[in-house]
Amino acid sequence: MSDALQDKEKDSKRVLYDEELLIRALQEEELELFRNEFLDLHPYDQARFFSRIDDDLRNKLYNYLSPDEMADLFESLDIDEDDYQNILAKMNPTYAAEMLSEMYTDDAVDVLNELDKEQVVSYLTIMDDESAKEIKELLHYEEYTAGSIMTTEFVAISENQTVRSAMYILKNEAPNAETIYYIYVIDEEKKLVGVISLRDLIISHDDVMISEIMSDRVMSVSVSEDQESVARKMKDYDFLALPVVDFQSHLLGIITVDDIIDVMEEEASDDYSKLAGIADVDSIDRNPFNAAKKRLPWLIALLFLGMFTASLIGRFEETLDKVAILAVFIPLIAGMAGNTGTQALAVAVRGIATGDLEQESKWKLVVREAGTGLITGTTCGIVVTLVVYVWKGEFFLGVLVGFSILVSLFVATLAGTLVPLLMHKLKVDPAVASGPFITTINDIISILIYFGLATLFMNYLI
């Protein structure tokens, strides 16, 4: 080992993560040093290091780590979906298949779902039969359901056995289980009948029957239940894991809290993307063409809506010719309506996403938001009326602008509330009613109101 590397090794004892030392160990093929330093890191830090190095160093890393060790790293990777395909394509196929078989089944399925069908078949063919069978069972479940995120690595015991025999099973199966804090109890037909905590199992007498100490009030989720609904239950009840059952209550797997955290992040990112009118805000595209490709569909759709708004203003050209000062207040009225609609939209979408609206009547929300729109519209309308009167000395013009804002804010608030509720009713993601979309719609509504009133009371303005 070179003196420089020895010095680096000493320095690394004082820091948690020495990237330069690891890179130089790979470059100079110091196998023992690299493994000693790298395997001492948390899998998250290993994954961070892996994400930052180039393909040449990754190829060396594959030679230094076993498929089992690489599996721990791969489970902690936080990369774009397309990157999984690129990384696996540069691995030796046998090495990649062994690594996938060593991962927890649900994590392996998440990776394979990002690959082409031909690649999936190829890896499943190379894998050992037992791992391939477990992965195939999860692959056929529909994406974004409980079945697609559950794991089959859990501990289940029979209700007709003693604590002693249950502990024997637990000790044997715990190394391969994703979590052992909850042990699920099944009957002879493998139906879920109860749950027992690890603590209760440990403190119970060896000869006590499991049926005597288990809790039969066990909450479960259907294998076809939406992952967002599962996440809500985990949050509400503070569970570390939830059992997944079929329509006959057979225990199929469990969903752990770490998977639910990923789901919540994914759902939040998805909703934010739609609210911002972007295809995918979760990934940062360093290529401007890819970023533009994701944003253009929404922008083009909004462009045509904007052209419709412009043509709408053109229809009131005669009104503008007679009272040109009306044009001054177009941005004010349209902007206020757009902002109010977006606020109402955010309240409605959040209520739907968190499930809060299931606990109260949706009409209560509509009435509450309508009242809010009326109060804010009246307040802003009075303020604008006074400002315009002081600024321009035109009282009726101030009344027109103020009343237009009142009506526009009221209607915009209702639109921001009703549109996502209607989409939810039609089984469409309410976040699709994005901020830019609802803002443009409210621009059209507010302009119609403003110029409609101006045309109606033209005699008072001239």
From TrEMBL:
Residue ranges that the Swiss-Prot or TrEMBL entry lists as coiled coil: none
Protein origin, superkingdom: Bacteria
InterPro entries: CBS_dom, CBS_dom_sf, Mg_transptr_MgtE_intracell_dom, MgtE_N_sf, MgtE_transporter, SLC41_membr_dom, SLC41_membr_dom_sf
Transmembrane in keyword set: yes
Transmembrane regions listed in the UniProt entry: 296-313, 325-349, 370-391, 397-423, 444-461
Subcellular location: Cell membrane; Membrane
Domain CBS: 150-212, 214-272
Entry-linked Pfam families: CBS, MgtE, MgtE_N
Keywords: CBS domain, Cell membrane, Magnesium, Membrane, Metal-binding, Transmembrane, Transmembrane helix, Transport
Keyword Transmembrane included in the entry's annotation: yes
Function: Acts as a magnesium transporter.
Similarity field: Belongs to the SLC41A transporter family.
Oligomer status and interactors: Homodimer.
NCBIfam families: mgtE
Protein name listed in UniProt: Magnesium transporter MgtE
